[in-house]
What we know:
Number of helices: 15
Order of helices and strands: EHEEEEHEHEHEHEHHEHEHEHEHEHEHHH
Oligomer: single chain
Mean pLDDT: 96
Structural class: alpha/beta
Strand order of the largest sheet: 5-2-1-6-7-8-9
Radius of gyration: 22 Å
Helix content: 25-40%
Low-confidence stretches: none
Largest sheet: 7 strands, parallel
Distance between the termini: 10 Å
Number of strands: 15
Shape: globular
Amino acid sequence: MKKLAIITTHPIQYYAPWFKLLAERQIIDVKVFYTWSQAAEKVKDKTFGKTIKWDIPLLEGYTYEFVNNVSEDPGTHHKNGIDCPELNDKITDWNPDAVLIFGWYLKSHLSAMTYFKGKIPVWFRGDSTLLDDTPGIKQILRKYYLTYIYWYIDKAFYVGSQNKKYFKSVGLKENQLILAPHAIDNERFNDSENKNYEALAVAWRKELGYTPNDLVVLFAGKFESKKQPDFLLQAIQKANKNRETPLNLLMVGHGPLENELLTLAENDSNIKFIPFQNQSKMPILYRLGNVFCLPSKGPGETWGLAVNEAMASTRPVIVSTKVGCASDIVQTGKNGFTFNYQDDLALIDIFNTLSIDKLKTMGDTAEQNINKWNFKAIVEALEQAF
């Protein structure tokens, strides 16, 4: 078997399952080198302001090693937060046929890119887009720098069309680019008789005070500026001024805008908040809403995997034009809607077209569509790349 070394920071629910699938298929011998040793069991999320320990297994079924990170301020929030002096030697000792690196800006990840170039194929996975680019001298200088960085890459596995445009803009050629689509564990979010997600969601909705006839818009994520939860909340309030039957907004999460959001929603019975929910609850949580909304303005909403999760949970989606996945998986009027991230009137117009029956039909379509974006497609792309 060909041997593939994977360099990434820490166990993540969107990656670990396909690492496991790679190992199970036994076509590639895979070993994951985690570079944020301090995050072996839990992650301190600076935006959430919380320490998170996922309640689903992320270290089962594949070979891995946590490489000692000596950074005095460990984490992914700055380039020197990942500093693993032993990384290149440990990978060399394992003697892989290729190395797949997640993200280049961290100190030890960039070091591995430059070290292994010309020794073994250097593969790369990232999800950057051009959606946040603004013309000017900074953009020109950054493009020159990125073209230099990506010279070290032999193949890049792009997650969608916006990401492919980005890779081409920094000098990568068509024959260096392979689609390995952004995906989630669809099966974990799909319902079945033994899971009863819909029934559990109905009971939870009742606890929250919703009736079956209440139309609930769900936001689940960090309460941070780039995701515009305040924009969404105020758009709901504006829409409700002209509606006989008000929309309900359920906000799930934590973050720096939390106090501001609570103030905006004060005395508004149509807006409810519940705290961050761990992974095992998410398939039920998405079903609390009739539609999921991600109204981000960026920068940095490169994909929005919560959109995949909502769709796999049979819920249609409303996403802004700054969300990277919009052009790939959202089909307006069929499984969701898109709107200009600055245009609250366009968002309100979407709200005014919604009905519970229409959203149910769109949600079934959403589930069918998103099942094509799966971990098997990622794994097969890597296998074929050899």
